[in-house]
Design brief:
5 helices, three-stranded mixed β-sheet, seven-stranded antiparallel β-sheet, alpha+beta, 209 residues, globular
Length: 209
Amino acid sequence: MLPAVLIALGIATGVAILSDNKSKNESTDNIKQPVSEQHVLEELKESGRRPKTVGEIGKTYNVGKRNIIVSSRFNVGKIVPLNFIKDNLVSIGKTGRGVAVENPFGKLYAPFNGEVIYISDTKECIGIRSDDGINLVFWVGIGTEKLNGNYFYCSRKLHEIVKEDQLLLEFDEKAIRKSGYDTTTAITVFNSNDFGEIKFKLGNWSMVV
């Protein structure tokens, strides 16, 4: 599942920086274009937008670039560093800087106004782009794509416009755990190299990455 997500979000990141004269139809065509994961990562690196790795977290980011805050009323058990995630590509930062949420409650809300840019077929992953170009991705659980959408409920549609605090995704965290899966959830800014410091404020927890 992860390579497909990287492809879709990598292309969506590219779409976000296209000039205004590009039509929405062209953006949609780009999202569907079949390219390899390695191709996406190489393009990100060459364009200077490579996501930071875990080893770089804690350093001063992109001096002179805009610092951002990602704030949501997502109810969380605890925020922990991203490298607590047991998914290798997420934990090493291939999907951008972010945080991990242990023992989350089963509702995800939009932290800003924006557009839905990715929904996985198995519903455990959803991505949105803010009006000012933040590509944010929620990855619910570890290996939960194997549940084939069971215990996940998403009424959003690709390219749908959403408002801040609008419900994005619901999931039955107890049923997921009972099925043997870790519900630790990653929240990452896929194009994090476009920004300076990123502060996540979730419930009563906050963390700067």
